[in-house]
TrEMBL record:
Residues 5-123 form the Gfo/Idh/MocA-like oxidoreductase N-terminal domain. GO terms for molecular function: nucleotide binding. Pfam families: GFO_IDH_MocA (PF01408), GFO_IDH_MocA_C3 (PF22725). This is Putative dehydrogenase. Residues 133-259 form the GFO/IDH/MocA-like oxidoreductase domain.
Length: 356
């Protein structure tokens, strides 16, 4: 790899546009090719960001000497094949969340990573968002005291039909699950990061699943117990017509204070020892640029990414525990699902620390 990281963007949907903008602003990196099965979509995104090359088949870029890294923005069910191919070829991979949709696929991807010298990072942007970074400083500094309660919302109109178009997120064959799998995983990951992991979940839905496997859920409420001894609730819906767009909100309660923040708006309000502070950011960031900068730094320095696949395995297990709870009507421990899949040691080996 030379001084410039040469990148191929695999997939040209709405998430890819956010990634393309972040790559465009990243010093020392350049998107050299956009790949999408729809040639018009690939052409449009390439033209928007001044990318010269485009293709309809990612296979032509596996092992390509002009591509150092790929940013995979495909639907979740297409992640395994493409990621394993690029890792085997020694190319670095930034992979959109969820990295896979089942524990068997997770085991295969982790094995591919183990046999590759390349870096694999899951593109989970919420830990890098400006609001998150501000609140994490409060938490790490002990300003809120010991956290004992978390509240999280993820409300959008993702499952409300727009102009008759059916997005990949609405097709189980592509998404591998519903709103919890494709959107709620954001909240689950951040809750786990802030509260020391997720010990157990008890979930409720407006729909009755036919099996314990992921389905196209639209509305879910989760009661959770966390690794730090705290408790919390998470509320997800993909059919909210809330005026003003999405709500991506969190609330934290600690022994010294509270904090409320929103990933989308970047707003942060916290109260410490009775004193209230509100912060409205002029240019809030949802973390796309920061996660890509982190990916590049990990490649150069040989560090383990904050959102490495092994660290995201616990989030996937928690998502699958939600679906199991919806079917069984009981509390489910993600650790039990990992143990049944012989993946408990993978999570233990991931460590709880954060590099950088």
């Amino acid at each position: 790899m030379g001084e410039t990281l040469r990148v191929a963007l695999i997939g040209a949907g709405f998430v890819a546009r956010d990634h393309a903008a972040a790559w465009h602003a990243q010093p020392g990196a350049e998107v050299r090719c956009v790949v999408d099965a729809d040639p018009d979509r690939a052409r449009s995104l390439a033209a928007e960001f001044g990318v010269e090359h485009r293709d309809t088949d990612f296979g032509s870029l596996v092992g390509h000497p002009g591509i150092d890294a790929v940013d995979i923005c495909l639907p979740p069910r297409l992640h395994l094949e493409s990621t394993c191919a690029f890792l085997a070829a020694g190319q670095h991979v930034l992979l959109e969340k969820p990295f896979v949709t089942g524990l068997e696929d997770a085991a295969r991807m982790l094995e591919a990573e183990q046999h590759s010298a390349a870096t694999l990072m899951v593109a989970e942007n919420w830990p890098f968002a400006s609001a998150t970074r501000r609140v994490r400083r409060l938490v790490d500094d002990g300003a809120l005291g010991e956290l004992f309660m978390l509240r999280a919302q993820n409300e959008s109109a993702l499952y409300v039909e727009h102009d008759g178009e059916v997005a990949a997120a609405l097709r189980l064959s592509a998404a591998g699950g519903g709103f919890t799998m494709t959107a709620g995983v954001h909240n689950i990951t951040l809750a786990s990061l802030l509260m020391g992991g997720i010990e157990s979940v008890f979930a409720y839905s407006t729909e009755r699943p036919a099996s314990p496997e992921p389905f196209l859920d639209r509305d879910v409420v989760i009661s959770a117990r966390f690794g730090n001894g705290g408790i919390g609730g998470m509320f997800f819906t993909g059919r909210s017509l809330h005026v003003g767009g999405r709500r991506l909100a969190f609330g934290l309660t600690g022994t010294r204070g509270t904090a409320e923040f929103d990933i989308l708006s970047g707003s942060v309000t916290y109260t410490v020892d009775g004193e209230r502070t509100s912060i409205e950011q002029d240019q809030p960031s949802m973390g796309f640029a920061e996660e890509i900068a982190h990916f590049c730094e990990c490649i150069v320095d040989g560090r383990t990414p904050l959102t490495a696949a092994r660290r995201q395995l616990e989030s996937l297990a928690a998502v699958l525990a939600v679906y199991r709870s919806l079917y069984d009507g009981r509390e489910v421990r993600p650790a039990d699902l990992l143990a049944q899949a012989d993946l408990a040691t993978a999570v233990a080996g991931a460590g709880g620390g954060v590099d950088g």
